[in-house]
Amino acid sequence: GLGPGATRTQHESAFRLPLPGDFDSFLTGLSKKERHELRRKHRRFTEAVGAPHLIEGTADPVGVFAQLHRLAEGRKGKFMTPAREGFFRDLATVPGARVDILVGDAGIPVAAAIGFQDDDAYYLYNAAYDPAHAAVSPGIVMLRMLFQSVIADGVAIFDFLKGDEAYKLRLGAEARPLYALEGRT
């Protein structure tokens, strides 16, 4: 137990999405509306920017990620301080870390994600996109490409981690409660 006087309080949820063994099965498992939306957004991205693909191994993937973050307005743009960029640079050195960058035909970064992958799951830690490309839904296209990539790697779970954004539920993720534990010493 937690000990006398300790408390456990649910404060948020994490969202996990079970993945099938192939991408076509993933698409088939979505609602007709969500499947249509993913295809429509992918098509719109392709028409405007070119065929989407993920690149790795750029000279400075965390720098690309940080720059995309800084392009956002409001809190998200101000979030990426030099100290936080250093934190993300450290994270990118952890075993299993991956920094994926979404580009179109011209190879210009449109979105980026930092996550972690092991044999069983991919954990999406943070993502950013260029607001100049907002009309082509780079965030959803990035997710689609990540799903395709991790399914090809044989991963069985896509973990969105915490945050109750509606798109996670629309894509079939299941909520798992997170608790704050406070004990007395």
Low-confidence stretches: none
Strand content: 25-35%
Q: Characterize the main sheet.
A: 7 strands, mixed
Task: Name the helicity range.
Answer: 25-40%
Q: Any overview of this molecule?
A:
The chain has helices spanning 23-29, 32-49, 61-71, 74-79, 82-91, 138-152, 166-170, and strands at 7-18, 53-55, 97-103, 109-117, 121-129, 157-162, 174-182. By secondary structure, it is α+β, with helices and mostly antiparallel strands. A seven-stranded mixed sheet has the order 2-3-4-5-6-1-7, with helices on both faces. Strand 3 (97-103) and strand 4 form a beta hairpin. The mean pLDDT is 91.
How is this fold's topology laid out?
Layout: E1 7-18, H1 23-29, H2 32-49, E2 53-55, H3 61-71, H4 74-79, H5 82-91, E3 97-103, E4 109-117, E5 121-129, H6 138-152, E6 157-162, H7 166-170, E7 174-182
Parallel strand pairs: 5-6
Antiparallel strand pairs: 1-6, 1-7, 2-3, 3-4, 4-5
Helix pairs in contact: 2-6
Task: Please sum up the structure shown.
By secondary structure, the protein is α+β, with helices and mostly antiparallel strands. The protein has 7 helices and 7 strands. It has helices spanning 23-29, 32-49, 61-71, 74-79, 82-91, 138-152, 166-170; strands spanning 7-18, 53-55, 97-103, 109-117, 121-129, 157-162, 174-182.
Based on the model shown, name its key terms.
185 residues, seven-stranded mixed β-sheet, 39% helix, alpha+beta, 7 helices
